[in-house]
Amino acid sequence: MGRGFVIMNECNITQNRVKGSVSGYYISSITSDSYITCVNVIENNQKQYNLNYHSSSSSILKITSCNYIRNRSPTEGSLIYSSSSNVFMSYCFIHENEIPIIFYLYQSTLTFENSTTDKNTSYSSYGYPSPIFKNTGISFENECPLLNISTTDFVESLKYKCRDSTPNNDENEEENENNAYVQNHVKFSFYS
Fold first, then answer.
1. What is d(CA 63, CA 110) in angstroms, rounded to the nearest whole number?
2. 184 and 93 in one domain?
3. Which among 95, 97, 98, 103 has a CA at the least distance from the CA of 139?
4. Range of 153's domain?
5. Are residue 105 and residue 39 in the same domain, yes or no?
6. What is the CA radius of gyration of the chain?
7. How many domains is the chain built from?
8. Neighbours of 121 (CB within 10 A)
9. What is the pLDDT of residues 121-173, one digit of tens each?
10. Considering the entire predicted model, what is its pTM?
């Protein structure tokens, strides 16, 4: 996604398997009012480079209440890559990722505030400062607050919103109570 105003809100990016890079999300050429909030990037695997990519021309990007958990890029790469941006991450949870570098800053700054990470390896280029960590000793109940939901209530609330209402939907209700799957419909537009 890119070019102009970008909002990512309440998305799940999970279990992608990519031979190259960016098994998470890629945003570029964004404006300063763009933001990412309530996005779960969980259990994605790739071979190299950057899992989540942020690029703009001297813009501010706010990332709030996002979870980056159990992602893999074992031989090289970074979890959060930022190019020519000022990134502010707050109330984010970064844990159990098998990636050599968590924060890669290319002509960028990053502030990681009121958040938690179990690994803070970083790389900064061209004399830019390392990420700034503020109030990172906070604890989240049961590790990840956005994922700590009652599946029974969650499935019941989505019962007719996320799937077609057919007579067969209620047949396996007991089996489905422990497995919540959200179906999001997204429309992509490409501009040249």
1. 11
2. no
3. 95
4. 149-192
5. yes
6. 18
7. 2
8. 13
9. 999 988 889 999 999 877 665 344 444 444 455 445 444 444 343 444 444 44
10. 0.71
DSSP the chain: -EEE--EEEEEEEE--EESSS-SS-EEEEE-TT-EEEEEEEES-EESSSEEEEEEEEEEEEEEES-EEES-B--SS-EEEEEEEEEEEEES-EEES-B-SEEEEEES-EEEEES-EES---EEE-TTPPPPEEES-----TTS-TTT---HHHHHHHHTTTSS---GGGGTTHHHHTT--------------
d(CA 87, CA 22): 18
Verify that 173 and 110 share a domain, yes or no. no
pLDDT of residue 1: 61
Give me the phi and psi of 123, to 5 degrees please: -140, 130
Give the pLDDT confidence of 88-112 residue by residue, as tens digits.
999 999 999 999 999 999 989 999 9
Residues 75 and 22 in one domain: yes
